[in-house]
Recover the amino acids of this structure.
């Protein structure tokens, strides 16, 4: 499973809500990725905040897809 992780920046407003929401999203992503992997899928998780660097994102996707010669 490949992941672009959410940065360490803390929200400035309503921090408790957002920290809990991000934690729930991470837990859900791990659960769903595990289920999909068990079914034979390869999983790549991209968080919107990790997409700012287009060159790095493109390289990561190409690397993920290229591992199986796709």
């Amino acid at each position: 499973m490949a992941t672009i992780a959410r940065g360490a920046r803390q929200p400035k407003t309503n921090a408790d809500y957002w920290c809990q929401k991000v934690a729930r999203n991470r837990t859900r992503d791990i659960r769903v990725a595990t289920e999909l992997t068990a079914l034979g899928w390869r999983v790549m998780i991209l968080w919107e905040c990790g997409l700012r660097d287009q060159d790095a994102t493109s390289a990561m996707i190409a690397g993920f897809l290229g591992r199986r010669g796709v």
About this structure: Helices lie at 15-38, 54-66. The longest helix spans residues 15-38. The chain has a mean pLDDT of 84.
